[in-house]
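User: Hi! I'm working on a homework problem where we have to compare a predicted structure to a textbook description. Could you give me the structure for the chain below?
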Amino acid sequence: MLDSSYFSYVKFNVDMPSLVSEINEYVQYRLKKFYVSHNKLCRIDFDGELGDKIIKTMPFEIFGMGCYLNPPMWNYPIHKDDERACTVNMLLSDENPDFEVNFIDSNTEERYPIPYIKNQFLLFNTEKLHYVKNNSKKISRLCVSIGCLSKYDDVRKLLEGNGNIGLYPY
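Assistant: Happy to help. Predicted structure tokens:
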């Protein structure tokens, strides 16, 4: 069963609609500039004014920030992240039942869907087993990922103390 040790929705003390809009525009403008990273993921990095804004918004030291593009019929197998301890992610694509993103219980091997909501930030514990599959034959999945080396529990406590846990009420 998923609990807050796996993920938490987060909101920030900034103009959230403006930030989400800037991120979406940045990604759409750079769709042809995605590259394959060292871990074989298709991504772009956030830099410039948007990168500076994200750095100022996140109350932790960032370890890589950008957007992943998961093309149709793409699979990233079960894993725990090697370097990042947690991430703040946000689905940019419309929610789609063909996007299979799950945590795996390491004891029971039970799968728990990660409840992404378009344009809502989610603190994600990357030290838990998880995987990502795009089973769509036509639609790519776009997901923001802002990495952090600090432990998930420490970041969650910090965010909770700042009043940042919860969904943003669009």
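For your comparison, note the following. The chain has one domain: 7-161. The two ends are 28 Å apart (CA to CA). Good luck with the assignment!
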